[in-house]
Amino acid sequence: MAQGRGAVVRGRVELPPSPIVNARRPAAAELGDPPPRDALQPRRAVVYFESAPRGAFEDREGHARLDQRNETFVPHVLAITVGTVVDFPNNDRTYHNVFSLSRAKHFDLGRYAAGRSKSVRFERPGVVRVFCDIHSHMNAFILVFTHRFFSVTDANGEYEIDNVPPGTYTLVAWVEGDVRDSRVISVAPDTRTVEADFPLK
After folding, report:
1. In this predicted structure, what is the pLDDT of residue 5?
2. Sorting pLDDT into bands at 50, 70 and 90, what band is 59?
3. How many CA atoms lie within 13 A of 107 on its CB side?
4. Burial readout 46-64 (b: 16 or more C-beta within 10 A, e: otherwise)
5. What is the per-residue pLDDT for 39?
6. Is a pLDDT exceeding 80 seen at residue 29?
7. CA angle 140, 26, 18 (to 5 degrees)
8. In 3D, which of 5, 48, 1 has the Cα closest to residue 163?
9. Maximal CA-CA distance, the chain
10. What's the rounded Cα separation, in Å, for the pair 113 and 8?
């Protein structure tokens, strides 16, 4: 995100090393529960404000993409604002059937072939777990926010949230279905940068 007039909140989320293991598709009775710990893929974290500054809840329409390549959703974690349309292109040589039974968004795109794409608009905030009905090992997370004060960590675990107005905020680190840590930060009127790291264990 481009720098604005406000401060920049940035830092690093230090995730413990863990092998990448695909999670199985859960039964319907399990959808309200987080995935088992031995099935987690802690490659990315999402850092966000628990509540946004005043005036930050305007509707924002946008577009995002959750690709299907090598029988994997790319990216594994996607963060968007309410009103965003997400495209689900199929770039494999096989059929896919993307679906979710999450409370924030319930959808089933049906089977579609390589080279085709289908789209979903996300109107409610929350965590949406995405699966493929054909390939049970495929899974992803979409986090839908009512504000733009969030960031997905990069390959080095670093994040940055810009244009933050003065105030006191609760900063949250989310990893694979769990809120792993939170802390209170203060942004003074003359603050340019706030550093906040999350050494998770």
Report:
1. 74
2. low
3. 17
4. bbbbeebbeebeeeeeeeb
5. 40
6. no
7. 55
8. 5
9. 55
10. 43
Inter-residue contact 41 to 76 (CB < 8 Å): yes
Q: How far apart are the C-alpha atoms of 108 and 62, rounded to whole Å?
A: 21
Question: How many whole angstroms separate alpha carbon 104 and alpha carbon 121?
Answer: 11
Paired residues of 186 in beta bridges: 168
**What is the C-alpha separation between 99 and 47, in angstroms, rounded?**
25
Burial of 3 (0-12, 13-18, 19+ CB in 10 A): exposed
Q: Per-residue DSSP letters for the chain? A: ----SSEEEEEEEEPPP----PPPPPPGGGTTSPPPGGG--TT--EEEESSPPTT-------EEE-EEETTEEESSEEEEETT-EEEEEB-SSS-B-EEEE-SS-EEE---B-TT-EEEEE--S-EEEEEEESS-TT-EEEEEEESSS-EEE--TTSEEEEEEEPSEEEEEEEEETTEEEEEEEEEE-TT--EEE--EE--
pLDDT tens profile 70-123: 999 999 999 999 999 999 999 999 999 999 999 999 999 999 999 999 999 999
Judged against a pLDDT cut of 60, whether residue 183 lies above it is answered with yes
Confidence bin at 192 (pLDDT 50/70/90): very high
